[in-house]
Amino acid sequence: MLLFILFIVLANNSAFSQINISTKLEKSGFLDCSSQSLLLVDSSAKIPLQAILQQPFSPIQQIKIPKSLESAYRYDFWLKFIIKNPTSDTLDLLFTTGLHQSTQLFQLHKNRLVKVSETNEKLLPNQRLFRSDDQYIPVRFLPNQVYVFFAKINDYPRVDFNIRPLLVSYQWENYHKVKAFYDEYVFLIAYGLIIPILFFVALFVIIFYLLDRQIYYLYYAFYTISIGLFNLWEYEHSPYTHLVFSYLTFLKFTGNSNIYVFLTHIFYFLFIFEFLELKKKSPTIATVFRSVIISLSAILLADIIILFVFKRLDWSTSIYWTFQDIFPFLNVGLLIMIFQTKGRIVRNIQIGSTFLMIGGFAGFMTHYTNNISFVLFRVDPSILFVVGTLMEIFFFSIAIGIRSYTIQKEQKSLYKSIMESELRMLRSQINPHFVFNSLNSIKSYILTHRSTEASEYLTDFSTLMRSILQYSKEQLISLCNELETTLLYVSLEQRRFNDDFKFIYQIEVGIDTDEIMIPPMLLQPYIENAIKHGLMNKEGVRTLTLSISKQITPSRQIIIIIDDNGIGREKASLLRKNTPKHQSMGMSINDERISLLGKTNDFLINIKIVDKKTSNQEAEGTKVIIRIPTE
């Protein structure tokens, strides 16, 4: 039976010979089976398994293995070889054909191919037959037995693609691995340091974003994450490191690093665009950056579709090599534009970008020209790229620190301005003119023996003063407290002017005034203006209306309307010009305070003043519309 099997196998090629193994091989060595193996290139990748036996095989040395993705990325490569164990020992060895995406090992048994085992880069670490290295298949050879093997190899035939069948001992593999560690530990340590540094910087910058809400923090975080993923992608192209990509194999073995390279460039350019405020400071350069970002994003999307939908690695690799040539020139061009901008912060960005560009170019040249065969790394590592990245992080961090310090300094200045504005508002509220008129009213009540009214007026006046002093210390108070103060103020003014104007107060049902927060003394300047300059200079019926309603769409707001039927702002302005030593500051200070609140707390209050006019364009009063966000 054995002779019959050998006759079938050897029928297609008389040069095919048997490979003998020995006990010595199991203990310390390896055996190259290339010279005694045959190869078949299945360009269709559709030959049925059992039909392989009838296909013509040729010696490996006589076949030029295609290494072009465009023509061979879907090929199957079949090896055929005979192994004999002439010893009386059971030999446990490791079989490999080299670094390939997958290798399936079949044994000829009763004139049929039976699968023995396989190795695959997409297998999880705990699914491998030999966990230490995904290129090896453990094979056991029983004493005095002959084995006819077929190996099916599927891979992307890159430039370094090679098929070399080997039988190695466990001891040899272990020695080879330990030797590789001593040869490559510098790269192992360098990448082991740069990856956690990048992700730590990303986390740190995200915290900055949560505190300051500056979008460039987010872009820089995504940039460092992208370049960290790129380094991790390289780091995990190793049989000995299992962190993230070993468990997300569809991201690890895409064949190239397009996704991570494009993401790195896109977020890097976005960061520069926002951090240097190019849109405001350099519109022309901003246009170039925006075009580059949009173009790279479109190509990235196309590459993702090509890889994961059409599964055409050859197209994706063409994009990869095209942009390997374009990126250096693109980066140099944009770096020249960055050098055209000025400033202390820009200087650090320029230095960091220069280091990054040099490191990236050095890393590309290392990958492009290196002929050294790495064991711990399957994507050529570059110390210069790691150094360039670290230097870029150092100088960019300085730039971000300076910008953060500048922002903090500006915020302190804004806070100081708010405090000064609050004090001026307080002074405008307790103005001598109002206090003098109120005391005169109390005096009039006393002289006319109206002690009860004088006592009530004095009580309300003191309550108003206490409220103003108390609330002036707060940045925000409830709408309920603001309305109490406002209504008390209107009540005093009505009594002071002997009820010469009518006051209407309306509030929509369902408004919870205790939950809505607004700046203190927001309404008083507009009500004072309406009474003092609009109504008191008018003849006839005088009406002041304060209405409060809510709005749900398109956003949740409280709408406060202060409406009077006075003489209007134009006539009031003319009268003020004729009043000696007149100085009205309440509304301007209020506007300044609201603007500062919007800048510091994103509390955007909208105030609109409408001049009401008749059909004949005659003034019939003023309407103030205040919109306060409630979410």
Low-confidence stretches: 1-15
Supply the helix-strand structural class: alpha+beta
For the terminal residues, how far apart are their CA atoms? Answer: 86 Å
Strand % is 15-25%
Q: What's the total number of strands?
A: 18
Work out the helicity level.
Answer: 40-55%
Overall radius of gyration: 41 Å
Q: What's the total helix number?
A: 18
Report the mean per-residue pLDDT as an integer: 84
Shape: elongated
Report the major sheet: 7 strands, mixed
Organism: Emticicia aquatica
Keywords: Membrane, Signal, Transmembrane, Transmembrane helix
Protein name: 7TM diverse intracellular signalling
Pfam families: 7TMR-DISM_7TM (PF07695), 7TMR-DISMED2 (PF07696), His_kinase (PF06580)
Please specify the SSE layout and strand pairing:
Elements: H1 2-10, E1 18-20, H2 23-28, E2 30-32, E3 38-42, E4 58-59, H3 69-72, E5 76-85, E6 91-96, E7 102-109, E8 112-120, E9 137-141, E10 145-154, E11 166-168, H4 170-212, H5 215-235, H6 249-252, H7 258-275, H8 278-281, H9 283-308, H10 313-339, H11 344-369, H12 383-429, H13 432-447, H14 451-471, E12 477-478, H15 479-496, E13 502-507, E14 517-518, H16 524-535, E15 543-551, E16 557-564, H17 569-577, H18 586-601, E17 606-613, E18 619-629
Parallel strand pairs: 1-5, 13-15
Antiparallel strand pairs: 2-11, 3-4, 3-5, 5-10, 6-9, 6-11, 7-8, 7-10, 12-14, 15-16, 16-18, 17-18
Helix pairs in contact: 4-5, 4-12, 5-7, 7-9, 9-10, 10-11, 11-12, 12-18, 13-14, 14-15, 15-16
